[in-house]
Amino acid sequence: MPLTKLDPNTALIVIDLQKGIANADSLPSITAVIDRTRKLLSAFRAKNLTVVLVNVAGRAPGRTEQGPRSSVPFAVDWTDLLPELDQQPNDIVVTKRSWGAFATTDLEQQLKSRGVTQIVVTGVATSVGVEATARQAYEQGFNVTLAIDAMTDLREEAHQHSLTNVFPRLGETGSTKEILWLLESLSGERNNA
């Protein structure tokens, strides 16, 4: 579904733009993703809308066929949010230990207590953290928008599968430019309570 509107109380959720992930040389277009996310962050903050910065600090405990189950700890700054995100005191910071930002956190409660009805999602990886967060938000009754040019994935085929086959079933998709245009049309400034 093409992007049609933003609710007056929409939150921006930035997934896993942290040092240990975003500094990986193998992430395509990460510089552009960070730049577009920064533009969205500035616009959401200017409108006093909720901003959520999410990092990942572990894995869910279950066994999988793929992916190492290593007990080697992450580097000291692996979970640190990128300085380019310019974390602000009013930002919600969520540390997750699963793919999605809702499953093992109080994010749903925090957003609903602020009256948020819609979320815009950016970050990495499209087919993992972004998709899982979008699925969970949709299941919790939020309107979901995905900033498709402000996300990336290690695997292009996984990125494209999410964009083409999954996201249209979870919400609306649009470019950063389209989202910024819709943000401008929101009337009045909101106060982050």
From TrEMBL:
Q: Give the UniProt keywords, A-Z.
A: Hydrolase
Pfam families (alphabetical):
Isochorismatase (PF00857)
The protein's matches in CDD domains, at most eight in alphabetical order, are given as: cysteine_hydrolases (cd00431)
Please give the name of this protein: Nicotinamidase-related amidase
Domain of life per record: Bacteria
Query: What InterPro entries has UniProt attached to this entry?
Result: Isochorismatase-like_dom, Isochorismatase-like_hydrls, Isochorismatase-like_sf
The residues covered by the Isochorismatase-like domain are 10-177
Q: Keyword Hydrolase: yes or no? A: yes
Q: Which organism is this entry from?
A: Granulicella aggregans
Any single GO molecular-function term of the entry would be: hydrolase activity
